[in-house]
Structure prediction request, 268 residues.
Amino acid sequence: MRFKKKTKISSEISTASMPDIIFMLLVFFMVTTVLREYSGLQVTLPKAQRIEKLEGKRDVAHIWISKDGIVSIEDKLYAMDNVRNVMYDKRAANPRVTVSLKADQAVKMEKISDLHIELRKADALKLNYSAKLDMD
Amino acid sequence: MALKKRRFKGGEIPTSSMADIAFLLLVFFLVTTTIDTEKGLGIVLPAEGQEIEIKKTNILNCLLNSSGKVLLDKSPIEIKDISREVRKRLQENSKLIISVKAHGQAKYVDYIRVIDQLKMANATRISIADTE
Prediction:
């Protein structure tokens, strides 16, 4: 008895669902990407050459200090003496928190020094002086 | 003479290029989006009450005054020359700790330039003193 030859099955991969897959990827990345959340204060950042990237956007707390010495932490204004309380809470919520300090280049060092003291009181010790890359 | 009625040929839009279009959009946005990455000079502050005594010979004092002039180990120096000088000193003594002390009226931008210079000299032990 002879076996009947099986009919040929078409061996193409269906591409009909391809756009769906790509759209899904697109939507996934759109949802998971964290863009800048805070608008902050108007500052002119200083320039530096040896700058490094800050790792992990989720572990970063931003502090702005404007030219006039106004302190803003994530879009709320605080007095300098209150920084320790705010940062203490942040540090308690996330022990890996890194402070990104966006201070205007004209800020006086006494303000920065006060902030150092506040951050030490709050035990938020990882600090990053935000700066722009100096091209020359 | 009567016109022949044309037969309707199925009106489908080809969807085979849809994937290409979606890919193209994806690639376009991937390339053009600049998620502004946080960049800056990293530093770790000492913990509260963690002051330690250091031998005087292992300290290099770096003072910054209100007009942006720097005094490195009692001699005035231009900011751009700091990295060269510090690198030289670090070769002589690898345990050297650079203590940066700024005047209260000194500008932040000068302070950042000093810290940048120290980073350029690969100085890892930087101490930041409180302003007076």
User: Anything to note?
Assistant: The beta strands of chain A are 47-48, 52-53, 60-65, 71-73, 76-78, 98-103, 126-130, 132-133.
